[in-house]
Every structure is written in structure tokens, then in C-alpha cells.
Design brief:
Number of domains of chain A: 2
Number of helices of chain A: 14
Structural class of chain B: mainly alpha
Mean pLDDT of chain B: 87
Strand content of chain B: under 5%
CATH class of the largest domain in chain A: Alpha Beta
CATH architecture of chain B: Orthogonal Bundle
Number of helices of chain B: 11
CATH topology of the largest domain in chain A: Rossmann fold
CATH superfamily of the largest domain in chain A: Response regulator
Strand content of chain A: 15-25%
Helix content of chain A: 40-55%
Number of strands of chain A: 14
Strand order of the largest sheet of chain A: 2-1-3-4-5
Largest interface: A-B, 39 and 39 residues
Largest sheet of chain B: 2 strands, antiparallel
Strand order of the largest sheet of chain B: 1-2
Low-confidence stretches of chain A: 14-26
Number of strands of chain B: 4
Oligomer: heterodimer
CATH class of chain B: Mainly Alpha
Structural class of chain A: alpha/beta
Distance between the termini of chain A: 66 Å
CATH architecture of the largest domain in chain A: 3-Layer(aba) Sandwich
Shape of chain B: globular
Radius of gyration of chain B: 19 Å
Chain lengths: ~400, ~300
Amino acid sequence: MMKRKLLALALSTMLVPVAGTALAQAGKISGDVVKIGVLTDMSGVYADLGGKGSVVAAEMAIEDFKAQFKPKFKIEVVSADHQNKADVGSNKVREWYDTQGVDMVTDVLNSGVAIAVAKVTTEKNKIMINAGAASTRLTNEDCAPKNVVHYVYDTYALANGPVSVMIKQGKDSWFFLTADYAFGHSLEKDATAVVLANGGKVLGGVRHPLNASDFSSFLLQAQASKAKVVALANAGGDTINSIKAANEFGLTKNQSVVGLLTTIIDIHAVGLQATQGMMFTEGFYWNLNSETRDWSRRFFSKHKKMPSMLHAGAYSAITTYLKAVHATGTDDTATVMKKMRETPINDAFAKGGRIREDGRMVHDMYLVEVKKPGESKEPWDYYNIKKVIPAEEAFQPMALSRCPAVKK
Amino acid sequence: MTEIFGVPIQALFGQLMLGLVNGSFYAVLSLGLAVIFGMLNIINFAHGALYMTGAMLAWIGLEYLGIGYWWMLVLAPICVGLIGIAIERLMLQWLYKLDHLYGLLLTFGLALMIEGLFRDLYGVAGQPYSIPEEFAGAFNLGFMFLPKYRAWIIVASLTVCLATWYVIEKTRLGAYLRAATENPKLTQAFGINVPLMVMLTYGFGVGLAGFAGVLAAPASQVGPLMGSNLIIVVFAVVVIGGMGSILGSVVTGLGLGIIEGMTKVFWPEASATVVFMIMAVVLMFRPAGLFGREK
């Protein structure tokens, strides 16, 4: 009797892994649960850009997907605060992949964190759809197109839009105010390239520490440079304080200030009085058409703030991923990635978006100009759309790709 | 144009002026810290959070209650002072007999809680607070464009610092305070209510932080992180000036503001560290600080 029990036990333990792999090969979903991880900055300088809003967007994506497709599998969301630290982020994601069965991570703002998480994701052969980090390294030197999609924006797309338009207006001398870390450097480098390519010149720049409490000194130097354009290669609170000080010191009277990574959250925080007339690239605006308005109002009712491009992007990224899982009936990485690359993306965030072979999701971007206080009719009515930048122009052309995995 | 080390002298004057503005904040904040340390022997880590609270209260007053800048410049420091008194009565007073570390840890925890509360309520991007109408515009000084509001910051904070110094050094109340610092038991024996004085001192010290917060509100974004960005520098200022030295903290505050401003011209990347480099050098040669006395 004992022997038979032991034998059965041994057999069953042998059978389980065999059955497991057989099921996966047959295209089933591991554990019948698709688990999505939202890794973001919950408490630091970027928490309003992503943060809780990204979790709200993820919940909305799942709710909408369930209502439309009535999937047989379960969908769960987990979220964590990476505190803008690469080691915290990569450890968390490793834990998610190893012990909690997470299939895909998204948001991942902060380029330093994103590059680290991309490495773990590749090692564990899972999927990362980055909606928040900006560095173009993610689709060039550090590209991993089998596992990583760069979804919303990057430093190339952000710099490209406003720079060429402003130089055409005769604003051809530039001065950079740059956050002194990887993201700022990347943004300054990409913007400088566009300035030079369009026949403009860079008169100088100053690098400030991240989270600087006072910008007046730096702006005085920008003022002394007599450059026609002062470009802010920084983000979040740093951008907000730079714009405020620029107004206070009368810089905006003779020079134009351009925030290279500015979002609607920053404009809302500073107010139209100080930001009117600013031009920059956005990946999303709530008041584009009835579809974006409906979606954004729904988001607003849950989060009490209009969505940033990152929030809308995270919603779209999760929807795209879930649709691919549903269509293929598996959460196997290679199968899902293949399906996502094949399927055009059409939702409230993007129309006719597609994922390129280097992992870049290309979609239309918008060159926006901030309204004057008198032009704004309701709260959050902030932008005039100056130009829709078509997907093919908005992002770095494949010919310039430095991604080793892409065959030329 | 005359130049010094390749920088036009006019730009240099501009930076000096800005250094003075930032130095004014350092002076008011480090003054509060110095008063508290001198009296209570507490290293008040909640100072930055209470400075932020002052700014947030100014914004809340304007946004929800329609109370303008001038009223809030008086009301917010009082509110912050009352919060301080509550903190002192309910928590700090139990720690005086223990090591400094306990007070530091308690106030650090409080700072995190206060910041977390505002972060949860209002997010991190901060709220705009516009400059009061009286100070809109700027003076053209020839070498620079000095916003009127920044000039006001210098005037207001120097006045407060001077008044505090006067009260502590030249009045009877100040004499009691200094006596209670020197020897609390003996002072109590003379019939002076030392615990009351300690409580009021803490309230006053953090009230100064609240005052600096309201002053800062129109000049920067009012957000939960504004205190933690500043407080570490202010601690360095106090250490350089000498813990507990009132005059020391004011003079070093202004001086370091100017040095920091100069660094932003010649070596901007180092502007966040220069204060700490000075601190290291000062500690090596004068461990009690520039104006401090070794006990």
C-alpha cells in the first residue's frame, strides 16, 4: 500500500512539469491569470506624471477589455513604487516575475530605472511596455525588441517637434538649461542635433542639479547669453520652477522659453498666465476629439485630474497587450510580441499606431501651443494644436537606428 | 565690459543679489533651528516640513478662504507655531532627558508624515501662488532686472532676524531664555517657568519656519517636496555657523547664499555640493562651527 502511494506520488510529481510545458506549448495562459505590473514613481518628482494615475488607467483598461471581450482568463494588476531608483525597480520586477507570475510590466517612468528593468525583463523573457521613460537608448544602444516596447514618447520625438518649427520662425540661436543626469543629457543631445540640422546654432548651456530649489541664477545666465530660445531639458518640478522664474525675471519678454518635456500636468500646476504661448510636443491631449474627451472625462471622474500622455499611453499599452493575449490564447512572450507587432493600434490614445522592429511604437504626435488665459473656456482647456506630426516624421527614422538587433 | 574670470561684472552683481535672496531663506530657517537647538537641545528635523506647511497654509488660505498674502504672512506662522506647541507638549517633552538621537528620529518621522499627508492630498507637482499685486514688476538696477518680490524677501527676512536677535540679546525675556538654556534647574529655582519657556521657544522657532514658507510661496511652486529640498542645506548652514549660535546662523546663512550663487556662475554642477564642502572644511578646523563655543 505504502509503496503504491509513493509510486503514485513520484509519478504525479514527474507528470506535473511535463503537463505544464505541454499546456504552455499548446498555447494556454499560465495559471489562467494574466498579471500586469505597474511600476512607477508613487511619491517623488514624477508621481503626478505617472504614479497613481497609471494604476487608475490600468484598471480602466482591464475593465473596458473585460466588458468588450468577455475573456475566460482572469486579469490582475499589481503596482509598486520604484522611488526613482534603478536597483529598487529591478529588484521589484525580478520578484514579480519569479514569485508572483507577472507577465508584463508597464509605466516604468525614469530612464535610469527603465534601462535596468529592461535588462531583467529580457533575462526572464517577459514583456515590458514602457510608457514613461524618455531616453532613446531604450530603442538604440539598449534595445531589446523581443521583450521591450517603447510606447508613448522619447527624447527624439520630444525635441523634434518644437525645434524645427521655431527655427523656421527665425528663432535660430539656442541656450540649454539641462537637468544634470542621463535623461537631461539625452534630451539636450537630441535637441542639439535637431537645432544644428535645421541650420540653427547653440550659444551655450548650463547644467543644474536634479530637483534644484532655485533657478534664478541659471536663468540669469540664459538671459545674458542673448539666445533667442531658452530650452528646458528637464522635467516635472524642475520645469515648473524654471518657467516660473523665467517669468519673474522678465526673460519671456525678449526670449522664448521651450520646455522640451512638458505635459498638461505641468501647465495645470503653473497656470496659463506664466505658460501662455509655450510650444512643445505632446503625445496625447484630452480635448482632441469625442473619443479622447469621453475617455478622459471617465479618467477624470476617478482620478480628479485630466490624464497625462503617460496615463493615456499606459491604458493603450495594456489594452494592446490584452488584445494580443486574447487573440493568441496564450501569454507566451514570443507569440504575444509577434501578434502585437502585426496588429495596428487603434484606440483613444493612438490611431494607426504600429510597433517597429526596434521596439518603438510609432504614432502621431502633436505640436501644441499653450492658450492665453482669455482663450481658455473651461478648466484644463489649455492647448491649441498647431500641427499633427505624422508617425513617420515624429520618431527617429529606422535608417538612423543604433539598435544591434535590427538588421540593416 | 569689465570681466572677472571671463564673467561680465554685471552678471556677477546679479548673482550676488540672488545669492542674498537665497541666503535670506537660509538665515530665517537656520535661525529657527539654532534657537530650538540652543534651548531644547533638539535637532529639529521637522523644520523643512513645517516650512512647507507654512507655504501650503498660505495657499490653502487663498484658495479656500480667500485670505490674501498679507494676512497669511501673519496667520500662517501662528498656525505653524501652534502645531509646533502641540508637537512639543504631546511628544517632544518626553525626550529631553534622552540622547539627541531620539529627538532627531521623532522629528524626522514627523517630517515624513507631514510631507506624506500633503502629498496624498495635493500631489507633488505643487500649486501656483501668484505674487501679491504690490510687488508685481521689477526694479531695473542697470546690471540686472530685480523682481520687486525678491527685494521684499531680503527686507522682510532681515527685519525678522534682527528683531529675533534683539529680543534674545537685549530684553528681559531674552535674558530669561538665555539663563534657562545655560542652567535650567537654577533658573527654575528663581521662579521662572522653564517648561513654559521651552514650549514657547519651540513654537516660535517653527513659527519662523512657517514665516519663511509664506515668503517662499510666491517665489517658487508650493508643493510637499519644497521643504526636504532645502532642509539639508539649512542644516549644513547651522553646523557651519555653530549649533545654537543666533548671530552665527544669520551671518552664515547670508554668506553661504552668496557663495552658492557665485558657484552657480563658475561651476553650476557643484552648486548643490559647495555648502557641504565648506561644512567639511569648517568642521576640520573649528568643530564647534564658526561662531559656536565649545562646551
